[in-house]
Amino acid sequence: MKPTEPEPEEKETSPVKENKSIPPSSGNKLVLYLLPVLLAILAGYYTLQGDNDVVNTSPKRQLAVDMVAPLLPKYESEVVRIEPRQLLEPSPACTTPEFKAEGVHVLEAVENIQKFRDEKSVLLLLNGENEGVVYSWEVAQDCLYELTKAAALRLNGDPDYIANGIRLLNSDGKPITTAQELDTERVAYILFDFQLWVWSGVKVGYERNVDGIHMKTLSLSPIVFGIENFFTSDEADFAIDQGLESLGRSPVDSKEAPDGYHSDRTSFTAFLPDSAYTRDFRARTAKLARLPSPGYCERMQLLRYQTGQFFRKHEDYFSSKSFLEEKSTTLDEYIAWTKWASATIESLGDKVPTQFRKGQIMHPNFEDRTQWQHALLSAFLEDAAITHYFEEHAAVEWGTWIKENVDNRATGVLDQLVESKSYMFKDIVHAWEKRVQLEELNYSFPKKAPSAVSHYFRWIRWAKERVEIVGDKAPENIRTNGDDYPTYRMQFQTKLIEFVMTDNTKEEIEAKLGNGVYERLNDNKHVNDGLIQILRDVPALFDAVLASWTKRAGDQFIYSKPVQFQHFEPNRFVTLFLYLNDVPEGGETVFPYSKERLVVDITREGMEECSEGLAVPAKRLKAAFFYDQTGQNVLDPLSLHGGCPPARGDKFGANLFTWNVDADEGSNAWGFGG
């Protein structure tokens, strides 16, 4: 279950009514995590119940892999190999191409390739999107970098992120590096920096063939695909054979479940052991998702839902831990904006509409915590109703909370809102700008410098890729099986602290990083997240860490810190759920926020959300493929989903969770073993 939102502080209330309480997290949301070692221990403590247990006779199965051949250690195997990005390079001879149109749907190009070629046009879209921009372009021009940059800026891409590298991928998720490759389809997707590929939904019902696998779009928001031809009958049965005897009650990651278990999840699970079989599925899943490494996929997890067992709505990504632990500064940003807007209004004089002038209801005034805040939030609510803002952000409860407090004339509503849901602040300001209609009053939000923790995570991404690129020329100690190979594991944090303390005296560390830092390093060496804890307070430590590791890696591994980039941290990215048997009735996977319907009139005892949104039926040898993150690689709360209880019979399934990093290392970074 997700941690609940913080309770509102004691606030001065309106003389009419008190503020409504801040809404909790949406219902019974659970964040799934499973610990292979823990499950192996727990398996012996839980008795499997029910009359329909599958008897594990373990007959010989026809598999695509050799289960007898010796298995190499992971870091000596193909599991950790990474496919490097293929970044585009600028050319001084190129100029900015001619813009033609925006808001063009991908099907217009896909279904009219020759027309686009004849008109010397090309369609470019952001990662995972269905609409993009058309530019004039022909093969002889080449100039892919300039074309991509122009389109990225037109699509509101951040110039600072573009500076860190841009790529083009075709509609099959494969790199485009030549003009001839772009000419093949005349459609391309733009990815920034280390962004991971997201399949675009195109339209509900759209079908494509991906390396012999059938993929059909079931929902555009969240993005959900139905998958066929991914695995065989023997492979399905083998998964059950391998995991049946190890099944244990399914744990959850929740502050409301101190023992690791919760009544909102009653199914049984088991991670399958590392083998040629599970490694093959890791590789196949990564290939389907177009991830850079098989290691980005977890080992297969077997699930069993007996009649009446369920897993209520939850996200697969984790949020119970904060790597940054930054205090919210949005309230300060709000105050800064109101001061800027007020001063700008004064300088513009009569040019400003009357209702926005000083003393009027829409004049920004951070000291007015009632009338001004209510007017501003009323404008925001008006726009939100038109755009379905709260539904699109999985924040319906917050929309209700805002409206109730505005209607009740409560005090300090905006203060609490921006502290708890900071992402809404820019949209609130935009609602005000939309009404004042003066370009001079469009606010440019200042960018924060990336934190040292953000730099640390991005550097590991870069270093892993660099090891792959340098190959055999890299020192043995930093190759994938070397002692100093960069990982997201907590043990690597310990190693880096030791490097810094070895390379610098106490006096040098204190001079560079401040008094007391040497003692903190010494005390934190073997503490979970010991390095990250200090990086939060002492950003300059990252430079010392970088210098010490690079000293051992060599000049081929000199890293240039980017000025700005999108924060990233290890987390789950996309889930592939395999249906291993036919369920006589029930057992659907439900996505409450989707507007699509495959099955209607569902009633499942104990889980009312099964009647909401998209319900994917449990059909043997089919699969559901859905994203936990958006095309811009940020967590997507719309991915909320649940496992409905079988009304009759048992349901067997298998999870193949993928991450935005090596899955085992990501799990370790969250403290889940791995």
From TrEMBL:
Protein name per Swiss-Prot or TrEMBL: Prolyl 4-hydroxylase alpha subunit domain-containing protein
Gene Ontology CC terms: endoplasmic reticulum
Biased composition (Basic and acidic residues): 11-20
Acidic residues biased stretches: 1-10
Protein source organism: Thraustotheca clavata
Coiled coil spans: none
MF GO annotations: iron ion binding; L-ascorbic acid binding; procollagen-proline 4-dioxygenase activity
Top-level division of the source organism's lineage: Eukaryota
Native organism taxonomy: Eukaryota, Sar, Stramenopiles, Oomycota, Saprolegniomycetes
Keywords: Dioxygenase, Iron, Metal-binding, Oxidoreductase
Required cofactor(s): L-ascorbate
Chain ranges of the Prolyl 4-hydroxylase alpha subunit domain: 480-659
Region (Disordered): 1-24
